[in-house]
Automatic annotation (TrEMBL):
Residues 15-94 form the Protein EARLY FLOWERING domain. Belongs to the EARLY FLOWERING 4 family. The keyword Cell division does not apply. Keywords: Biological rhythms, Nucleus. This is Protein EARLY FLOWERING 4 domain-containing protein. It is found in: Nucleus. One of its GO terms (cellular component) is nucleus. One of its GO terms (biological process) is entrainment of circadian clock. Pfam families: Elf4. It comes from the Eukaryota.
C-alpha cells in the first residue's frame, strides 16, 4: 500500500508540473499582450499630443487593437481560472458538482 501512495504522490507531482507549466505559459501570453498594449498606448498618446489630424486618425485602429487586446487578456485569465478550478477539483478527487468520486447520490 505504501508503494501505491508513493505512486499517487508522484502522479500528483507530475500533474502539478503540468498545471504550473500551463499557468506559466498563460502568464507569458498575458504579459506579451500587456506589453503590446503599453506600446500602443504610447503611440496613441504621441499621436494625440501631436495634434496632427492624420496622426489623430491613426489612433482609431490603435485603440481598437487595445480594446481587442483587453478582451484577449480577459479571456486568458478566464481560461486560467477555469483550468485552475478544474485542476484543484481533480486533485481533490471531486467531480464538477464538488462530490467525491464522481458518483451521483
Amino acid at each position: 500500500m505504501a508503494d501505491g501512495n508513493r505512486n499517487d504522490r508522484r502522479d500528483g507531482e507530475e500533474g502539478d508540473g503540468e498545471v504550473w507549466a500551463n499557468f506559466s505559459g498563460t502568464f507569458r501570453k498575458v504579459q506579451t499582450v500587456l506589453d503590446r498594449n503599453r506600446s500602443l498606448i504610447q503611440q496613441v498618446n504621441d499621436n494625440h499630443q501631436s495634434r496632427i489630424p492624420d496622426n489623430m486618425a491613426k489612433n482609431v485602429p490603435l485603440i481598437q487593437e487595445i480594446n481587442h487586446n483587453i478582451s484577449t487578456v480577459s479571456s486568458l485569465y478566464s481560461d486560467l481560472s477555469s483550468n485552475f478550478a478544474s485542476s484543484f477539483r481533480h486533485r481533490n478527487g471531486k467531480d464538477a458538482d464538488g462530490r467525491h468520486g464522481g458518483t451521483k447520490a
